Amino acid sequence: MPKITYVDASGTERTVEGKTGMTVMETAIKHNVPGIDADCGGACACATCHVYVDPAFGDKVGKPSAMEQSMLDFAENVRETSRLSCQIKIRDDLDGLRVTTPESQH
Predict the structure, then answer these.
(1) Are 77 and 102 in contact (CB under 8 A)?
(2) Alpha-carbon span 77 to 86, nearest angstrom
(3) Most exposed of 10, 25, 50, 61 (fewest Cβ within 10 Å)?
(4) What ranges do the domains of the chain cover?
(5) What is the pLDDT of residues 80-96, one digit of tens each?
């Protein structure tokens, strides 16, 4: 199972095993990772699962869709590496993925 590391704004790391096919958000919720609220339940209708993707995984994760980009427009402190974790499906090649939650979500 691919391992995902969630880093909060203070630098605290939590590494958990994700299941292929689940999203990074679903995995965070399952493991009680703070900073990912997922108010819309993964419907890409809010930005409470906003994360910064480690640049080393940028190409593997890809760019946000038009719908996701629209939701990111409502998020605070958006960066080039910003994604909604509900839109990142876990695959075997994402083993070691690191995402950081923005300070505004803590």
Answers:
(1) yes
(2) 18
(3) 10
(4) 3-92
(5) 999 999 999 999 999 99
What is the per-residue pLDDT across 40-73, written as a single tens digit (0 to 9) for each?
999 999 999 999 999 999 999 999 999 999 999 9
At 56 the three-state DSSP class reads helix
Question: pTM of the entire structure?
Answer: 0.95
Q: Which two tokens stand for residue 15?
A: 């590494």
Which CATH topology does 3-92 take?
Answer: Ubiquitin-like (UB roll) (3.10.20)
> For tokens 């679903």, what's the residue?
26
Chain-centroid distance of CA 26 in Å reads 9
Name the DSSP class of 11: -
CA distance 62 to 52: 13
Q: Which residues contact 79 (CB under 8 A, 6 or more apart)?
A: 52
